[in-house]
Each structure stands twice: as C-alpha cells, then as structure tokens.
Design a protein that fits this description.
The protein has 529 residues and is mostly helical. It is 77% helix and 0% strand.
C-alpha cells in the first residue's frame, strides 16, 4: 500500500484533487499541469492553424470568404457552447473521464477534417473539434487553478497561458510549412500526436469524479436554446451582406437569435440545474472581467484572422512566410507569460491588464499604416507589441476573474470566462469579415467615381495601352487590358483601406475596454468564501 503524502500548504482544491496530492505528493502539481497543457496545446494548435489555410481551402473547394470564414467561426461557436458545460461535465463525469472523452472526440474531428471531400464535411469537422476544445480549455483552467497555492495562482495562470499562446504562435508557421510542402489537409493531422500522448496521461494524472453527490441532470433545453442563438446570429451575420440585411431570411434569423437568447436567460433562472449559473454575475469584479474577456476574444481572434489574410491576399506571400511573420510575436508572448503571471501576484491585476490593453491598442493603431509595400520586419515588430500586451492581460484576467468566486463556482466561472472570450472571438471574426467586404465595396465605388475619368488616369491608361499594342489605338472598350489593370489597382487600394480601418476598429475596442478594467480592483486581504 502506497504511503499517504502530505498536501502542500496553501492548496485550496476539491477532495478528488487533494486525493491525487496524497497519492503523488507535491510533484503532482506538475504532472497535472503538463497533462492539462498538452490537451490545451493540441486543441489551440488546430484552432488557429486554419487561418493560414483558408486561402488554399477556398481554392480547393471553390468557395467564397463568406463560407470559408465558418472554418473559424464554426470552431469558435461550438467551443463557446460547450464551455458552459464544463461545470456539469466535471460534476457528472469527473475530470478524468471528461478529459479523455473530449480528447477522443477532438481526435475524431481532426481525422475527419483531414479526409474531408466537401466543404460541408470540413466545416462539420471544425465544429466537432471546437466542441471538444471548449470543454478541454475550460477544464484545464480549473485544474491548474486548484493545484497551485493561493499566493501563486497568478503564476499558475501564467503557466496556463503559455500553452494558450505557444499553439497560436507555432500553429501558423507549422501550418504554412505543411501547406507549402504537402497539402492543407496536413494542418488537421498536426495535432494528432499531442492528443494520442495526452489521453494516457489523463488516465493517470487527472482526478476522478467526486465520490459524494448525485450526478446532476444535463440542461438539454439550455444547450438547445444557446445553440439556436449562436447558429442563428452567426448565420445572419455571415449571409446578411449577400442576401440583404432587410431580406426575409436575415430578419427571421435575427429574430430567432433574439428570441432564443431571451428564452435561454429566462430558463437559466428557472432551471434547478442550469447550464449557466447566473449567480456568478452577482460578483461585480467578475462582471468587469467578463466584459473584458469578450473584448479580448474579439481582439485576439480578430487580429489573428486579419493579419494572415492581409499578408496572403495583398502582399502575395506564401502561407509559410505568413506563419513565420507571426512566430516572433507568439514566442515573445509565451516568454512574457511567466513574468506577467508573477507580476499579477504582486500588484493589482487591473493595472497589469490596463497596461496590456494599451500595448495591444498601440499595435493595432500602428497596423493602420499597412499597405502592399509595408516591410515584412516592420509588421512583425508591430505584432510583437500586440502579443506582449496580450501576455500581460491573460494571466491577470484569469486570476482576477476566478479570485472573486467561491470554490463551488470555479467550474462555472471558468466556463463563463472562456465562453465569453470564445464568443467575442466568433463575433469578432464574423463582424470583421463583413466589415472588410462592405468597406472594400464602398471604397471601390468611391475610387471608381473619382479616379476613372480624371486626365491623369486617362493618360496612364493610354500609356499602358500603347505599351501593350505598340501603337496608339485610341481608348478601347472595358475589356482592354489597361482597364483590367485599373480595376485591379482600385480593388487593391480599396482592400488596403478596408484592412487599415479594421485595425483601427480593433484598437478603439481595446481602448474602450480599459473602462471596465478599472472596476476589477482585487481585495487580497479578503478571505475566499
């Protein structure tokens, strides 16, 4: 019989986690942390790697950006829904079964994506991946928060954040290499080894279900209503530009989203076992953290969507080069995380968060100067500034949001914070995609109206025409190559302006989120309830 080992001082955790400390001793914290980080790394790697593959997928299946963006938003939306099931999964199945089952589902989704023959199957595989990733991410946050002493929880969240950012940092670079060297399908297979390794580790190091208490029933109605809300709302946003914002289909989708959202909130107040325990919003600091989480999700996933798209569509660089451009930023972010986590243990988290928001806003503001000739290295430096800001934000935001909650609400709190960040990401990617299309069209109309008939433009067209045909033929019809050149130039300039404005929007949102951050003052002298 193994000797019972002493639980380290300062650990506040559930009985099942304490039992694992008694089995493995103080080193258990690192066994569990590595297991959790492996799972998070695998899911986040696939979550962000798709961004560099989107242009290739569009070409392979002959789909437009409005369909291709579902590869990102489908993943994020599915994960947002399942994040709210984290508390139920832990209570009903325990962390060990939840982790193993979720990782198995994630593995199945990855394999399905790699062999998908239609865009519909590919999007379905992304939804399956996202559903599994939502639970894994939130559960990993819960276990890491419990296995370190109270006075080191900022450091713990910094550790958790390393896994969150290393995957997005390495993903685009690895994905670009695989796409250029092999095929876009390999981006789905890349996370498989991590999943295969982490499953046996979870069976050994993740705690079992609590032995006390009955299994709570699943809030099926809550799951259905939240799913209807997200799918309806995102479908309305995705198709509104093409169908017309006042068309019957779009109006019905928005109405469905509104009704299902209201019904969801009403049901959560009536259900005995709600999917979302609204009591977490009784705590003022948690509300402030929730607002900031939505904004951070918008900025993080929105910028991750904008930058590779700009590089590949306007500057014409390869997926590998696009991914490599983001690599220094991701590595800088990962290197900053331990420092940022330790910093949040020593000073008020809201100060660290505000500093991070300013850095990210500055990065996005600098990006407003991008054009087709912007140096590669310059954009990399701008991206580094933004990722340093995110490194300051994440550990402090995670620690501050959960520190205000009692132990019984940690699962709910973690699920809500991750849900809101994911929701912000889904809406951010979708809205920025719409913004790009709409502003590009508006700028194109403006440039066409003001430039085509000017003497300078007409002279340029005549010069191009003379160079092509070797003689002066007079102005030809619009199928003339000179007109095609002008059309391409106008589109390129219009798209550039749309990207610039997109970065300005992200910067403004980050600055505005400093306001709720001011209400996140943490009382370190207060005992946890």
């Amino acid at each position: 019989m193994s000797p019972v080992r002493q639980v380290p001082e300062g650990i506040e955790a559930s009985a099942s986690v304490l039992a694992m400390f008694e089995l493995f001793g103080p080193s258990y914290a690192w066994f569990a942390a590595i297991t959790a980080l492996l799972g998070g790394f695998a899911t986040l790697l696939t979550g962000t790697i798709i961004n560099v593959a989107i242009p290739e997928v569009m070409g392979a299946f002959g789909i437009g950006q409005d369909v291709a963006q579902w590869l990102s938003t489908g993943f994020l939306a599915a994960g947002a829904i399942t994040m709210l099931l984290t508390a139920w999964s832990i209570a009903a199945l325990g962390m060990r079964v939840t982790y193993t089952l979720s990782m198995s589902v994630f593995l199945a989704g990855s394999l399905l994506g790699g062999i998908a023959l239609t865009p519909e199957i590919l999007i379905l595989s992304r939804v399956i991946q996202g559903a599994a990733a939502g639970i894994l991410g939130s559960m990993s946050m819960v276990i890491i928060y419990q296995i370190f002493p109270v006075n080191r929880r900022g450091m713990a969240m910094g550790l958790f954040g390393i896994g969150q950012v290393l995957a997005p940092a390495l993903g685009p670079a690895l994905g670009g290499f695989l796409i250029d060297s092999y095929s876009w399908r390999y981006v789905f297979f890349l996370a498989v080894p991590f999943a295969v390794i982490s499953i046996p580790m979870a069976l050994m190091f993740m705690p079992k279900r609590e032995s006390t208490g009955s299994i709570p029933p699943l809030d099926w109605l809550g799951v259905i209503l939240s799913s209807i809300f997200l799918v309806s709302f995102l479908a309305a946003l995705s198709n509104g530009q093409r169908e017309g914002w006042q068309s019957e289909t779009i109006v019905l989708l928005f109405a469905s989203a509104f009704i299902s959202f209201v019904l969801f909130l009403w049901w959560q107040t009536k259900s005995r076992h709600p999917m979302l325990d609204l009591s977490v919003f009784v705590y003022g600091r948690f509300i402030a953290a929730a607002i900031v989480s939505v904004v951070i999700g918008t900025g993080l996933y929105g910028s991750t969507f904008l930058i590779p798209l700009f590089l590949q569509t306007l500057q014409g660089i390869t997926p590998t080069q696009s991914g490599m451009m983001m690599l220094p930023a991701g590595l800088a972010m990962a290197a900053m995380f331990p420092f940022a986590g330790a910093l949040s243990d020593r000073i008020q988290p809201r100060i660290v968060i505000a500093a991070g928001l300013l850095c990210f806003a500055l990065s996005s503001a600098l990006m407003r100067h991008v054009d087709i000739n912007t140096p590669y290295a310059q954009m990399a430096v701008w991206a580094v500034i933004g990722r340093i800001g995110l490194a300051l934000i994440f550990p402090s935001l995670n620690a501050a949001s959960l520190a205000t909650l009692p132990l019984a609400l940690l699962g709910q709190g973690s699920g809500v914070i991750n849900f809101l960040r994911q929701l912000g990401g889904a809406f951010g990617v979708n809205l920025l995609s719409i913004f790009l299309v709409q502003r590009t069209a508006e700028h194109s109309q403006l440039y066409a109206a003001t430039q085509v008939s000017t003497p300078a433009t007409l002279e340029l067209l005549q010069t191009i025409q003379d160079m092509i045909f070797g003689q002066r033929l007079g102005y030809l019809l619009q199928f003339d190559p000179s007109f095609a050149y002008l059309s391409s130039t106008i589109y390129s300039a219009s798209l550039t302006m749309a990207f610039r404005e997109g970065f300005i929007v992200v910067s403004a949102i980050m600055l505005l989120s400093i306001i709720p951050t001011c209400f996140m003052k943490l009382d370190r002298s207060a005992a946890k309830q």
